[in-house]
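Protein Record: Sequence and Backbone Structure Tokens
======================================================
Tokens: labelled as protein backbone structure tokens, with as many entries as the chain has residues.
Task: work out the structure tokens from the sequence, keeping to the layout shown below.
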Amino acid sequence: MDENQFKQVLETILDDLKTKLKNSKGIDVFVKNRAKFEGWLKVEIVDILYNKITKNIIPEKYHVDIVFDDSALELKAVNTNYRYNRVENKTRPITLNVEQLKNDIDKLRNLHKEDIKNKAILFVVFPFI
């Protein structure tokens, strides 16, 4: 898959994911409680890939969240410390989230496999109402 095709795949994932996020009452519960939902995110993205892009998908290959065709996708759900009336106020150290995100970036940068040509990180930042 060339770079333009990969960008189109990412746009498809983002478009479908936005709809799923907007329509999910379950995600509302997680966001209101500042709880992580990366597992759900992986399943939904694999579903999008499987139904619209490719059946060649392997979760957790090379310690990367999702590998499909010749591409690797790492996912992260990042908390914020913004305060909102409808969201429970909890102390969530965003420093750890940022460090984990940097580690994922490094992991993909250091991933040198012949079968991987494209790499990306998709992260959802919440709550951001």
